[in-house]
Amino acid sequence: MISTSDIFHNLHQQVRFITKEVNELLKQYHLYSSQWTILYCLDQFGPMKQTDIWKYLNVEAPTTTRTLVRMEKSNWITRTEGSDKRERIVRLTSEAEDLLPIIKESIQKLEESLLSQLSSEEQAHFYYLLKQIGVKKGERSIVY
Amino acid sequence: MISTSDIFHNLHQQVRFITKEVNELLKQYHLYSSQWTILYCLDQFGPMKQTDIWKYLNVEAPTTTRTLVRMEKSNWITRTEGSDKRERIVRLTSEAEDLLPIIKESIQKLEESLLSQLSSEEQAHFYYLLKQIGVKKGERSIVY
DNA sequence: TCATTTTATTTACCTGGGTAAATAATCACA
DNA sequence: TGTGATTATTTACCCAGGTAAATAAAATGA
């Protein structure tokens, strides 16, 4: 019988461990994990409004502002005014677009190596169980 | 087929969500999640050296120093010099000891509610799969 | 003994999560 | 049209993770 606090403690630990590994890998590109998350997002969806980004990533607006300011300084992205003058539209720089495939591949390899002990079925099951956490009694979470 | 980045993205999200919930609950005690982790630790093991704490929690020493300083200010713990004058021994205050059982119970209830969609077997399996992450090929992780 | 190395803790500074409140632009509608 | 509400972003300030380097005490060993 496993105690609930053991589960949450280990969940926390593993996430810290993973973040550390990702940051270690990204160091050579002078990037950090949450910056990478945003780059990945922009690669997937193309130019986005700041609001689109933080809503998609499920973080707060100020957190995203701060990270984007840093990324603009280090020339990963640009932020231009939208037709609605309140909005900022975020775009990858050409330098970012050039490096993206390389970084994407090395992150992919790292992630695969972190999951190498789990079969596809186990990964799917893990994903399913993970998604159930926080779902209230009576509700149902459907994983697509 | 689930992409590895989906798994890690959701892992990250869930941990943020859980931490937010715990912080929300702890707000009434003017406590924060990682302070609670330390209290829980001291409750389990009794007085500990700072080094024991950060090694057990698997975080860095400066992180622990900072949190302990805050907890000392808010009267959750004391730090006294050990016989080895480099060491600091951390103890719960009597106020902390009084409140601990109450807080422990409400955290326990929160954790159970977060896991309410998972049976004991699923929880155990989740724990097992979680532990496999980061384990290198060829190595083996044994869960006790 | 005393110089060197190791160990425990701290300081300074970085990223990245959060909240509350301030701007600034747009929208809604009387 | 113009006022009030809403929306997008920012600013200021928490907590919590990290690294690098400083300090101070203890351990080691020639």
Structure characterization notes:
Two copies of one chain form a homodimer. Chain A has 144 residues and is mostly helical. Chain A has a single domain, classed as Arc Repressor Mutant, subunit A, CATH 1.10.10. Helix content of chain A is 63%, strand content 8%. Chain A contains six helices and three strands. Chain A has a three-stranded antiparallel sheet. In chain A, a hairpin with a 6-residue loop joins strand 2 (77-81) and strand 3. In chain A, helix 1 packs across helix 5 (94-114) and helix 3 (50-57) packs across helix 4. The two termini of chain A are 30 Å apart. The mean pLDDT of chain A is 94. Chains A and B meet through helix 1, helix 5 and helix 6 of A and helix 1, helix 5 and helix 6 of B. Chain A binds a DNA duplex (30 and 30 nucleotides) through helix 1, helix 2 and helix 4.
Count the helices of chain A. How many? 6
Low-confidence stretches of chain A: none
The percent range for strand residues of chain A is 5-15%
- Count of spatially separate domains of chain A: 1
Structural class of chain A: mainly alpha
Mean pLDDT of chain A: 94
Largest sheet of chain A: 3 strands, antiparallel
CATH class of chain A: Mainly Alpha
What is the assembly state of the chains in this entry?
A: homodimer
How far is the first residue's CA from the last residue's CA of chain A?
30 Å
As a percent range, the share of helical residues of chain A equals 55-70%
The main sheet of chain A orders its strands as 1-3-2
Largest interface: A-B, 50 and 50 residues
Instruction: Compute the number of strand runs of chain A.
Output: 3
The CATH homologous superfamily of chain A? Winged helix-like DNA-binding domain superfamily/Winged helix DNA-binding domain
Shape assignment of chain A: globular
Succession of helices and strands of chain A = HHEHHEEHH
CATH topology name of chain A: Arc Repressor Mutant, subunit A
Radius of gyration of chain A: 18 Å
